[in-house]
Amino acid sequence: MNAFDGHAAAPGSDASSGCETHNPGTCAVLAENLTRRFGDFTAVDHIQLAVERGEIFGFLGANGAGKTTAIRMFCGLLQPTEGDGWVDGISVRENPERIKRRIGYMSQRFSLYEDLTVEENLSFSGGIYGLGRRAIAERGSELLGRLGLDAHRRRITGSLPLGFKQRLALGSAALHSPGILFLDEPTGGVDPLARRQFWDLIYELADGGTTVFVTTHYMDEAEYCGRVSIMIQGKIMALGSPEDLKRQTGAKSMQDVFLRVVEG
Amino acid sequence: MVRSVLYLVQKEFRQVFRDRTLLRVILIVPIVQIFVLGYAANTDLKNVRLSVLDQDSSRDSRSLADAYYASDVFIPGPRASSPAELQNLLLEGQTDVGLWIPRGYAATLLTSDAVAVSMTFNGQNSSAAGRSVGYASEIALQEVGRYLESAALAQPDLARRARRIESSSRFFYNPELRSQHYMVPGIVVLLITIISALLTGVAVVREREIGTLEQLMVSPLTPGQLIAGKTIPFALIAFFELTFATTVAVLWFRLPLEGSVLLLGVAAAIYLNVTLGVGLLASTVSSTQQQAMFTMWFFLVFGILMSGFFYPIENMPREVQWLTYLNPLRYMMSMVRGIFLRGSGVVDLAPDLARLAIIGVVTFAGAALRFQKRLG
Amino acid sequence: MKRVLAVARKETYHILRDPRSLAVAVVMPIMMVLLFGYAINMDLANVPVGILDQDRSPASADFITRMTSGDFILEVARLGARDEVEPGFRRGLFRAVLVIPQGFGERLVSEPLSEIQILIDGADATTAAAVDNYLKAVVGMVNLDLMVRQGNARFRSQELRSRVLFNPELESSHFVVPGLVAVVLIMICALLTSIAITREKETGTMEQVLTTPLAPRQLVLGKVLPYLVIASVDAALVLAVGNLIFGVPMRGSWWLLAGYSLIYLLIALALGLLISAVTKTQRVAMMIALVTTLLPTLILSGFVFPLASMPLPLRMIGRIIPATYFLEVIRGIMLKGRMWFPVQGGVMLGMAVLLLGMAGRRFRTRLE
Asked: Where in chain B is the domain with CATH 3.40.1710.10?
């Protein structure tokens, strides 16, 4: 499925179905007044979010807007200063460790072991998520095929081009079939063709029912998402499907939407 | 549970074995250290050059000089023909001790007008000099005693009344008195300490630097599993080094291994608990590899200096000695030496083992507490 | 030149923001001076000794008193039986046991020869030998005394005057401080600089820099400059502490010392550069630097262990270590006031030129 075909067909694009904000268990990701401060600096400022299961949610914003901090809170890496968040119904404040079983995470730096082979990186990832050897082998092969990395199984990760590393990182994050995938700037520094192919993969995953929560500062990628939010200096200034936002702001592209939101 | 740890250990080993240079270092450094230190760390006083200015040229003066050369400590240095020349030899560093036997030595020996024999020592190396002075005085005393005895025995009535006490010395453990036997077990301890503490600390920080630590923290692994995954590989490597070093010590240096190998292993396990804990602790307070290395290095150097490895703890001032009670190396040094040389058993080592175990628990607990799966 | 200073400035920021390496480089040597001056002492005293008096006569008691008077040994235990000896050794209670057999007192009066036994824990060979020697000497003194008491008042003890040059108080600090200067210089200039340069390679910033008009040589020089400054300051501090607190003398010329230190410093620097040229990661750089610079300086240069006591192959290795020569120079200047070091000076200059040349060549062709 091509990412450019009718994003209207993207699952969960309907802004209000299923997910009830007072019932965390019904949402994939929920945030209520979620705030994080570092000393005087407020990185994430009382954000409100509700992400449907199976949705592709784009978490947009300029660099330094607070996106990575927010994702880290959802992943249980940082404690909120105020407010709370729920991932798959589990509170970020109270049970961050339980969240970790249900999610997959791909960090900005891809976080791969450069001195291990593609296969070894995958099997390690599977192993620490508790997958059995057979499961790792089967799912691993399947993923390598879908990621187009089959021919490069035995190559040392450090020798791969950036685009391949990116795919491997996605594979590692998705190997244990998590319900929710958090991808932090997964397409940073990668060429446009590779980016498009990557989004094809994201679509495949979402089709399978995985919720994908992705941050990016590429506004064109926003078009691929079911709904997006725009974060500026820690606050969410806009939230909705790309068409809705374009209609509201009278802009023609998400790029324009962003500029208009920033300017006022 | 255990499987995840196995995966972590497997990954760590893969990384170690892929790093050619690190591998070479892990294998070569111990070899170099054990051989170099084994031969160099020699506190035997030997080959101390003694120059004689013999202005008496009598049988007795020659006998005195020979008494020195006959000892294991002093060897002949360049002869001098004047006091100034003797002084110069010392100043220029061409000799270590100057012995000046003035004229009249034999004639006035043991009488009330006895001429003074003087010895001048190069005091630069204070410990060697101190011990040289000690040995020299003792040799002189023995020489005088011998002279006295022969003089006394020459008089029959004295010979009849002569009374002597004779002492016989017996050395337990290390009868050949090789200082190597004392040093090599210490080197074994040094080796496993350096490997386990340094490598562990650096390994954790490395992941933090690359970013993979974050990935691990997001996974369902518990802090315990993460810690185990990081420390077990290096504990295993340390055990390998221990086996290797012990084998070299016993086969090459012919070090006796009087005690039980099992006990050695147990002591090592308890000790590694401490060193790994310290490495881990260092990693939790460091954000770069360099910081981790330097933190560990700092503690290692002082730990080694105050462990009794080359400087005896008993000679240190009281307050400093109390400080060494906190030093795990102190206990391990003493235990390993005991096991190798004295055949010390569990009963003998029990107090030290207990203290080490406590330190280990405390350090590891401290490290584990700090090792949160959080960034903030 | 301006570019070099810019690099130097950046490196200084790095260093200041990472106080830990600074702490190690600066604080550690000072603490070592304090440690050596105050705590470490190779001279034996109060060696714990046990007594097994199987005779329990006034004569044996008297003998024991004579043996244990003085500082060298300290009576810590009275044993009741022989089987207490080994457990005592194993538990580290005492290092030697003096055994006076039953009948000692009687024999002393009636027989020409009486025997005693000295049982020594030989594990620590040096102490064991020293204790043995000492106890034998005391027995010798007792015998001398017996002979004198026998009624020949003509015999008086021969006088042996001993004098210690250059360090009459036998202060270990006088010995150690000059050595520490060598250790400091090599630690900072070889160890730290090799890690610093390798770090740029490892983090990839080296690549970044290579795209700028900055020449590799300028980069290296700039990186190294702050460490040179730190090393000099540190060495000066060590000397100051040694002199002010422990009275380590400076009997020679400061200029001469500075000059030779500079040569040594350049040698250390060249070594650091060569190491960083062949390593890719910091942890390897550190281990290689430790083994090839710091350890030899500590062990084979005569800093702690006298070269004379080592077997030939090690002494030969000691002769190719720059620190060996530098130590002879610095000790000669500080403790003896010597001025002229033809051999050492020549060797050091030769090493400096050779190593700097090699380092320079490696950095001109590849900076990978």
From this structure: 48-161
Rounded Cα distance between C182 and C179, Å, is 5
Using the structure block, give the residue that is written with the tokens 């200063």.
A81
Neighbours of A161 (CB within 10 A): 11
- Digit-coded pLDDT (tens) for C136-164: 888 877 877 777 666 554 555 556 667 77
pLDDT over threshold 90, residue B272:
yes
Task: Report yes or no: B297 at the C interface, CB cutoff 8 Å.
Answer: yes
Ranges of residues in chain A whose predicted pLDDT is under 70: 1-18
Interface of B with C in 168-207 (CB under 8 A): 168-175, 177-179, 181-182, 202, 206
Residue C248 and residue C173: Cα distance in Å, rounded? 7
Examine the pLDDT at C365 and tell me if it is beyond 80: no
pTM, full prediction: 0.79
- Say what the ipTM of the complex is: 0.80
Cβ neighbours of C159 in B, within 8 Å: 114, 116-117
- The fold of A19-263 is Rossmann fold (3.40.50)
CATH class of C47-149: alpha beta
Q: What residue of C is the nearest CA neighbor of B163? A: C112
CATH for B48-161, options being 3.40.1710.10, 3.10.129.10, 3.40.630.30, 1.10.150.20: 3.40.1710.10
pLDDT interval class at C368 (50, 70, 90): very low
> What are the pLDDT digits (tens) for B1-13?
788 899 999 999 9
Q: Which residue of B has its CA nearest to C134?
A: B138
- Give just the sign of the alpha carbon dihedral B136, B139, B143, B145: positive
Residue A32 Cα to chain centre, angstroms: 19
- Is pLDDT at B249 greater than 60 in this prediction? yes
Searching chain C, which residue's CA lies closest to the CA of residue B340? Answer: C123
pLDDT at residue number C153: 46
Tokens of A247: 């209609």
Mutation for testing the B interface, residue in A75, A87, A111 having most B CBs under 10 Å: A111
CA distance A224 to chain B (A): 26
- Token pair, residue C87, equals 């457990």
Find how far residue A149's CA is from the centre of its chain.
21
What CA–CA distance (Å, rounded) separates B98 from B117? Answer: 11
Which of B18, B210, B221 faces A128 most closely, judged by CB atoms? B221
Per-domain residue ranges for chain C? 2-40+170-365, 47-149
Check whether C113 has a pLDDT greater than 70: yes
CB-CB contact of B278 with B228 (8 Å):
no
Within 8 A by CB and 6+ apart from B78, the residues are B49, B51, B89, B94, B95
Please tell me which of the candidates B110, B118, B294 has its beta carbon nearest to residue C24: B294
Determine the residue type at B206. R
Give the per-residue pLDDT at B40. Answer: 82
pLDDT score of C76 more than 60 = yes
Hey, is the C-beta of A250 within 8 angstroms of any chain B C-beta? no
**Is the pLDDT confidence value at B41 over 80?**
no
Say yes or no: B373 contacts chain A, CB-CB below 8 A: yes
pLDDT at C15: 80
Kindly list the residues from chain B whose CB atom is less than 8 angstroms away from the CB atom of residue A123: 7
